[in-house]
Design brief:
84% of the residues lie in helices and 0% in strands. By secondary structure, it is an all-alpha fold. α11 packs antiparallel against α14. The chain starts with 16 loop residues before the first helix and ends with a helix.
Length: 461
């Protein structure tokens, strides 16, 4: 088994944190940026090629897409975190077991979740806020996505492990490959073949299929530091428990996001009256823009994850704190940039997606209100993912639930009653600010605890 310095993750415990963040986060940021740009470009193709109502239909699929991603990240993030910790403990055999189990679990989850959702697709979409005008588009898009979940799940699961086991550049290439193929196919399928919104979904699966082949080839190669091996330790209970316990945080986060979007859609449909479908479409534009910057922050946290996991597993606490501090600065800068751009250019952003003046007008007001508190979102995401990366999923889950349920849902119940659609945007902004304050307090308390813990280890060691 090759153990050269170019492929071994041991540099995570010795190289400078700044260089490691560049090495691991920059490829992840590029990949996340490419994915975000694809989502935006895909929505532009749908809005321009199919129509404004198709944008609203696509927005209806957001909660279901969150669930689709959630059942995948349950395995992918848990497996990536545990493999990093095992490698920090120099336990290569256990890291290999993680890869084997993640592959099998991805297939199982895809078949079970995708199959069940297809059986009840229409009732689910109506529950998420679909109307007679929007459900044809939502149904057409989601059918293709759900049939492709086995490919999507294996690609996402193994790509996370590729990054966590010392190959951030290859993980970036796989994401770029997926996006590149996607962007090429989407306009062909939508405009040339006239396949409508289903063409956009087929392009998505086509891109992921190309990346699926890439990541599978990596883990089948004996040259990879961690790769598939014929072992009997599939679905071992202790390992599954650790994967699911750590992956539970992003899973619940996606489930909460699903539930929140349902309430957001229904609040918009109720508050906007006859313009309800258009308001939902406006939220789709705002959501795509929001996720553009959030995905870049996720790229930072993905790059931080192996650094944090390895050094926490190796009891190098100072390196953990240094990584976290730099991550918070970077995350805040990213979302502050998002705030600035959306406050200055709201109409220009909306006009990329649609020519519908009513949709542009509602989106403009949403940008101006929601993005007021957006700078703190980057810091909150970094802190939440920090707890997940060091194997403390309960704290990560707690911070996720407070932002999306405990803070946002009561505000959605109160503010739209008095301020209409503006109250919906204000609810989102208010919950972000309260979640940040809570995350900061939690971080201060836990840091004091770990300072004492690791100081005692050094004293007795």
């Amino acid at each position: 088994m090759s153990q050269g310095t170019s492929s071994t993750p041991n540099i995570l415990g010795t190289a400078s944190i700044g260089k490691l963040l560049v090495k691991y986060s920059l490829p992840a940021i590029v990949a996340s940026l490419a994915t975000s740009l694809y989502n935006i470009v895909d929505s532009i193709f749908i809005g321009r090629g199919v129509g404004a109502m198709a944008i609203s239909g696509l927005a209806i699929t957001f909660p279901l897409m969150n669930l689709v991603i959630g059942f995948c990240t349950l395995i992918a993030v848990g497996g990536a975190t545990i493999s990093s910790i095992f490698l920090g403990q120099k336990n290569l055999d256990r890291a290999t077991d993680v890869v084997n189990n993640v592959m099998l679990l991805c297939v199982i989850h895809a078949v079970v979740f995708g199959g069940l959702t297809l059986l009840f697709l229409d009732p689910i979409l109506y529950f998420f806020g679909a109307t007679a005008d929007t459900i044809p588009y939502a149904r057409e898009f989601m059918r293709v996505i759900l049939y492709g979940t086995p490919v999507s799940y294996v690609f996402i699961g193994l790509n996370n492990l590729m990054r966590a086991t010392g190959y951030p550049e290859k993980a970036m290439i796989s994401a770029l490959l997926s996006v590149g193929v996607n962007v090429i196919l989407a306009p062909i399928f939508i405009f040339v073949f006239d396949w409508g919104i289903a063409g956009a979904a087929l392009a998505t699966i086509g891109g992921q299929l190309s990346a699926f082949v890439w990541v599978l080839a990596h883990f089948m190669s004996k040259k990879s530091y961690v790769h598939f091996e014929a072992r009997d330790k599939y679905l071992s209970a202790p390992l599954l428990k650790r994967i699911y316990s750590i992956g539970l945080s992003p899973f619940l986060m996606n489930c909460c996001a699903c539930l929140v979007v349902v309430f957001l859609n229904k609040a918009l449909l109720s508050s906007a009256g006859d313009m309800g479908n258009i308001a939902v479409g406006s939220y789709g534009i705002i959501n795509r823009t929001t996720m553009f910057f959030v995905m870049i922050v996720f790229g930072v946290t993905q790059g931080m994850q192996p650094i944090l996991g390895f050094n926490f597993g190796a009891s190098k606490w100072d390196r953990v704190k240094q990584t976290l501090r730099k991550g918070i600065y970077i995350g805040t800068a990213i979302t502050a940039t998002g705030c600035l751009l959306t406050e200055i250019f709201p109409d220009a952003i909306s006009s990329m997606f649609t020519t519908d003046e009513n949709m542009i007008d509602i989106a403009r007001k949403g940008f101006r209100v929601y993005f007021i508190c957006y700078p703190v979102v980057g810091a909150q995401i970094v802190i939440q993912n920090y707890f997940q990366s060091i194997g403390k999923p309960k704290l990560s889950i707690f911070l996720s639930l407070t932002r999306q349920l405990i803070f946002l849902l009561p505000l959605l119940w109160i503010l739209p009653e008095y301020y209409g659609v503006t109250g919906v945007w204000a609810s989102m902004a208010g919950s972000d600010m309260m979640a940040f304050v809570l995350a900061a307090i939690t971080l201060v308390i836990t840091t004091k605890h770990f300072n004492k813990k690791f100081a005692n280890q050094q004293y007795h060691g």
